[in-house]
Amino acid sequence: MDASPADDFAHRPVMATEIVEAFATVPGGWLIDATLGGAGHSTLLLEAYPHLSVLGVDQDPDALAIATERLSRFGARARTVRARFDALATVAHSLPTDAPIVGVLFDLGVSSPQLDRAERGFSYRLDAPLDMRMDPSQSLSAAIVANDYDEPALARVLRDYGDERFAGRIAHAIVAARPVRTTGELAELVRDAIPAPARRRGGHPAKRTFQAIRIEVNAELEVLPVALRSAIDLVDTDGCIAVLSYHSGEDRIVKQVLREAETGGCSCPVGLPCVCGAVAEVALVRRGGRTPGAEELRSNPRSESARLRVARKLTDGAVR
């Protein structure tokens, strides 16, 4: 039997059990899945909690079409919309004004189906034209970053978004080899630019470079604070915000935004009573992030870098 498009977009949701548990106590209402992908998490949440409905958001038209098909069996309890997650405030207007928003879920980064489809140009293991656009209609692509950025700008991207300690060497090699047209060419350039002893540690030598360029192409770290702030504003009392991140830069932003919401932006000295009038908006469910268990790490190695942070809303959501 031929595989269907939905089969091609199969996706194993990371930390699925922990995500379902995170929303166990929220009241009835709408949950916004801000990074719908293959609808893995949304499907599990709709199955587990009949009192919840899901609005799924994704900028990838392929993912959105397949997720919409998968969620169709839930009828009116599931809706989808094509948008980038920093448009949550606008997206929320598509829900009835009397519908409480009781949760927002973010599963950041690139999905397994996007990595596994060579033509999307995300993977250093599959040769294809350089692309890496989550939204195929946008103009900036990996090819532009690799071929048009000057050497200092390219090195900055690799260093800031990939924590790449050989960023200067890699950027120099890429600029010298232009034009770089495919993922295979880029992966080979990166491998050759990194000293041999370093290539034998830490997985594929091109992993950090591909991650950094993908983040630059999709402005992932730029839009994340806006999206998180919108989520906190939208969620009603006792609702939940859950964020899965896979990159240290993402996790730092998540931690910072949730911390500011937890303290209400208090500016008083640590250890002294608050006198500035700050009001906490959320309570962190636990200190620090949760990571996948040993069993999940064995069955799904791509979950290795995942970190889950969860907060509960203390005050009323913003008026829509």
Provide the descriptors you would attach to this structure in a database record.
single chain; disordered N terminus; alpha/beta; Rossmann fold; 15 helices
Question: What is the topological layout?
Answer:
Elements: H1 5-8, H2 16-22, E1 29-33, H3 40-48, E2 52-58, H4 61-71, E3 78-82, H5 88-91, E4 101-107, H6 112-116, H7 142-148, H8 151-162, H9 167-177, H10 183-193, H11 196-199, H12 207-217, H13 220-234, E5 240-245, H14 248-263, E6 282-284, H15 294-299, E7 307-313
Parallel strand pairs: 1-2, 1-4, 2-3, 4-5
Antiparallel strand pairs: 5-7, 6-7
Helix pairs in contact: 8-9, 8-12, 9-10, 13-14
Describe what is shown at a glance.
By secondary structure, the protein is of the alpha/beta class. It contains 15 helices and seven strands.
Explain this structure to me?
With 320 residues, this protein is of the alpha/beta class. It has 2 domains: 199 residues, 3-Layer(aba) Sandwich (Rossmann fold), CATH 3.40.50; 82 residues, Orthogonal Bundle (DNA polymerase, domain 1). It is built from 15 helices and 7 strands. A 7-stranded mixed sheet has the order 3-2-1-4-5-7-6, with helices on both faces. Helix 4 links the parallel strand 2 and strand 3. Helix 9 crosses helix 10 and helix 13 runs parallel beside helix 14. The protein is globular and about 55 Å long. The chain starts with a helix and ends in a 7-residue tail after the last strand. 44% of the residues are buried. The N terminus is likely disordered.
